[in-house]
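Fold this: NAD-dependent epimerase/dehydratase family protein
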Amino acid sequence: MARIVALTGATGFIGSVLRQRLLHLGVHVRALSRHSGGSEDATEWVHGGLGDIDALDELVAGADAVIHCAGAVRGASSDEFNQINTEGSVRLIESARNAGTCERFLLMSTLAARYPGLSWYASSKYAAEQQVRSAARDVAVTIFRPTAVYGPGDREMRPLFEWLLRGWLFTLGESESRLSFIHVEDLANAVLKWLVAPEAPSGTYELNDCQQGGYDWSSIAAIAAEIRNGPVHQLSIPTPLLRGLAWFNLYFSRLFHRAPMLTPAKVRELTHSDWSCSNGPIQKALGWEPQILLSRALQERWF
């Protein structure tokens, strides 16, 4: 196993879980943070962001492996996403390559990168994948494309699951849309499998909870209905209404210089008809298999 792991996004949802798992295994974790202090554990904190080359050089100095989880999920323009997700990723791989000790680099991307034309976010993550590979040279680059990630600490999907278990499912897009999910603990396990593999696979891998074909809205409602032993009412949010709200949100976000989550580009993501994927390639490369289906997570309130 790597002696020193450099980690970005260590205070975020996925990064926080991963950092704790690494520390529990006795790994020396060096983490990047824009804040002056970090948690009171064995993490070695480096103050700075993805735009600070000196901080990135300090982060990766002597590191055997780099795990890049940091990124922007909110933004009012394509430039805002590109500056962090694309340019920041390239700066990090260049620092890792120049350090001379990094053997493997994991880029935490997104399933949305499969369709870069859908949104600014998807485009910036796809561009990051391509440019990181080009800049890596002799550093082995692995790219993970997880689908919708949820679990304890997630603030985006938790309210939706809570409403679901109260008997209300808010649906977007077409009724037969295919969705997929992955629990954050399963994603962390996949990263640990990558870290201890004798050789890091140089490829792009999609990850989900292994539900064959993913889920549609009706199957999600059926799972919740069985758990709560009662009906689940589906409320469809009209796409034109969602687009209108997104334009309104984008306008005021730009006016007040804030980074919005809901934008017209994001609506295209949310209403896309097929977010199913296959774990076959990553299972073959790393021997990883997820353990937590959505039904189990909802039953045990593990979100």
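The first strand starts at residue 4 and ends at 8. Residues 4-152+181-210+276-292 form a domain with the Rossmann fold fold (CATH 3.40.50.720).
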